[in-house]
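Researcher: We plan to redesign the surface later, but first we want a full-length starting point. Tokens attached.
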């Protein structure tokens, strides 16, 4: 992963245009319209707005963008986005879109097709000339903290931490449920099911309480591998057991308590790995795992205080779509302060 800042780039077929020629000035800046998009596992969310008014109208699709040999399929994304943009521009009366900011799950490793095709496609379709393509972890950061130095941990089924001192990005974990995502929902669920299987076998480290809950959800334990291993949505199935682990911990089961304390340590490790070591950085947590409640959040607060005494814990201001809106707004007025990076936040100018 590239971590140093890189200059803005344009598609090979289009030489870069001067940024000053594209930037609205004076009263034009307030009227300049943008398109902000969040592409994730549940589909697309798109916003049309202006610098002055912010987000004006929103549309959602219920289908995730497909992936192919080159990763996230730019053509499929454009097909879905086209109908959404038609509806949004009709609703808002927007004639011209100036900029696009898109955050996509998997962009860092699966974004080759988007990088190559999307800038030219959105320019041909809507006349957009300034395009920011970002990993969803970056838009999660922008939504949570804006352009402030710090660290954001996005904790759901998986787990990834992003941090910046505004000169470069740092990433920790986000390596998937087989190699990482330590402390995330799938990690907690897997640890809880392992404890259930240990109890079933009579091995040390087992939990009768977790065994009872696992059997209530999945049936007899000998059948669990056959239910779990063939599933393409295995991480989500594992994560679905995390609330049961939290419930057992709330009831005082020591094994479940230990699982959540270990998860808290992993989450704090990732936050500490990416957080700036100087100044007064901010640290925020986002994602569905926060709904786990006190059995996870109390030990997590202890770990963060211990690992990051110089940082300020803050509540996330918004979600990844809010982050795309912030990036689009800053890009429109020429005030983007977050560091660019080929794989994490790529800003392109298409010549007109």
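Model: Full-length starting sequence:
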């Amino acid at each position: 992963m590239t971590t140093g800042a890189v200059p803005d780039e344009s598609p090979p077929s289009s030489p870069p245009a001067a940024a000053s020629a594209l930037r609205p000035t004076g009263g034009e800046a307030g009227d300049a319209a943008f398109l902000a998009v969040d592409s994730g596992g549940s589909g697309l969310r798109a916003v049309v707005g202006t610098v002055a008014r912010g987000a004006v109208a929103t549309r959602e699709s219920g289908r995730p963008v497909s992936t192919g040999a080159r990763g996230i399929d730019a053509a499929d994304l454009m097909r879905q986005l086209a109908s959404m943009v038609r509806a949004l521009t009709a609703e808002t009366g927007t004639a011209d879109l100036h900029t696009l900011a898109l955050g996509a799950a998997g962009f860092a490793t699966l974004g080759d097709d988007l990088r190559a095709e999307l800038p030219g496609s959105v320019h041909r379709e809507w006349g957009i000339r300034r395009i920011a393509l970002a990993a969803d972890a970056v838009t999660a950061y922008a939504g949570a903290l804006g352009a402030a130095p710090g660290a954001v941990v996005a904790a759901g089924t998986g787990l990834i931490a992003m941090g910046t001192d505004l000169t470069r990005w740092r990433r920790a974990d986000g390596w998937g449920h087989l190699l990482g995502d330590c402390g995330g929902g799938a990690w907690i669920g897997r640890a809880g099911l392992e404890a259930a299987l240990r109890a079933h076998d009579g091995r040390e480290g087992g939990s009768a309480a977790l065994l009872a809950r696992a059997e209530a959800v999945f049936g007899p334990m000998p059948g669990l591998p056959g239910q779990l291993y063939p599933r393409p949505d295995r991480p989500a199935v594992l994560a679905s057991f995390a609330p049961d682990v939290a419930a057992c911990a709330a009831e005082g089961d020591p094994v479940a308590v230990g699982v959540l304390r270990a998860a808290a340590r992993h989450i704090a490790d990732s936050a500490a790995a990416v957080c700036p070591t100087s100044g007064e950085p901010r640290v925020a947590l986002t994602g569905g795992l926060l709904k786990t409640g006190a059995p996870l959040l109390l030990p997590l607060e202890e770990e963060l205080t211990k690992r990051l005494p110089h940082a300020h814990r803050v509540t996330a201001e918004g979600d990844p779509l809010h982050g795309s809106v912030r990036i689009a707004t800053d890009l429109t007025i020429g005030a983007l302060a977050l560091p660019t990076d080929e794989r994490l936040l790529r800003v392109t100018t298409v010549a007109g």
